[in-house]
Amino acid sequence: MPRQTLARIHLDNLRHNFRLAGDRAGSARAMAVVKADGYGHGLERVARALSEDTGHYAVACLEEAVAIRQAGLTHPVLLMQGVHQASDLPLCAAEGFTVVVHHKHQLEWLESGNARPQVWLKVNSGMNRLGFAPGEVRAVCRRLVKAGIAVTGAMTHFACADDETSQRTKEQTLVFDEATASLAPIERSVANSAAHFRPGQSMFDWTRPGVMLYGSSPMLGHHGPELGLRAVMTLESRLIAVRQLAPGEAVGYGEAWRCARPTLMGMVCIGYGDGYPRHARSGTPVGIRGTRAPLIGRVSMDMLAVDLTGVENAAVGDPVELWGRTIPVDEVAACAGTISYELLTGVTHRVPRVEVNDEETSGLMTGTVS
Length: 370
Hints:
370 residues, Lyase, Ornithine Decarboxylase, Chain A, domain 1, nine-stranded parallel sheet, elongated, pyridoxal phosphate, Ala_racemase_pyridoxalP-BS
C-alpha cells in the first residue's frame, strides 16, 4: 500500500476562483495564468479544468505553451517571457502562440527571420525586470510593423500591487497608459492577481490572475478565504506514530524543541523531501480531526512532529492537513518566512495529486491520481 501522503486538487474551487477573478475584472477579460506547472497543481490538469471558462492562457515559456497544445487545447496562449532563441519563433507562429517582446535581441530576431507570430510588447513601467522603457515603445512598435509583425497587445507588471498602502501601482498604471495609448487598436493588460483587489484599479482589456486562481491571497496581511478564495490544493498526510513525552524531553534534530509539560506527540509522514518547508517554525499549525495542532521541532526530510495535546482521541492513521481548507497555505508560508507561491510550486513529484471535483469533500480519498 502506498504512503498516504498526497495533494488533493479541488477543481471546482479552481473554477470558483477563476470566476471570481472574472467578476472582479469588470469589463476586462481574465486570462488564466498556468505557468510553473499550474502553480504546482499540474499545468495540463488546471488548463483543462478552466478550458470552458477562460478564453486565453498565460505561461512563462515555450515548453509550457506546448504542454497546453499537447493537452488538446487550442486556446490562444501568451508567452510572457517571449522566446529564448530565434529558432523557437516558427513554432510559435505555427501554433498560434502570442510572443511577448521585452528586449532588443528579441526584436532583432523577429526582424531578421521569416516567422511572423503575433506579438505583445512588454513595457517597463517601473518594476525594472523586463520590458522596453516607456519612451521606446512607439519606435519598437514601428519597427515590428515595418517587419510585417502584428503587434496585437501590450502589457506591464506591477511591483507593489499587494501592498494596499502603496501608491506605486497607480503611478505604474499611468506610465503604462501614457506609453501605450497611441498604439490602438491593441489589447492592453496590467492586472496581476493583487490588482483585482485594488478598488478603482484600471483593468484595461485583459487581466492576468495567477496565484489567486489557486486559492492563495495575493494581498499582504490577508489569507485567501478573507478574499472569497477557496483552497485548490489540500496537502495531506497521516499520523504514523503517537507517543507520550515527559517534561524536559526533546524532539528531533538539534533538540530544537523541548517539552515544558507532559506532551502527546504525533509523527506525520511528510517532510521537506515532499515540499513541506524545512524552515516552518515550531507552532506552525496543522489540522487533525478538525483541530489545529502545532508543529514542534525541526522538519525532517520525510517526517515532522506535532503536539497532539489538544486533539481529542488522536490516533495512528488519522489524516493530517498541512494546508488547505482548514489551514490556509498563506498562514503556513508566513510561519516559514516565505510566500505561498513557493510552497505550492515546491510540492515534489513524489507526492501524488488526486483530482477532486467536490470542494465539500474532506479526508483522504481515491480519485484520479497523477
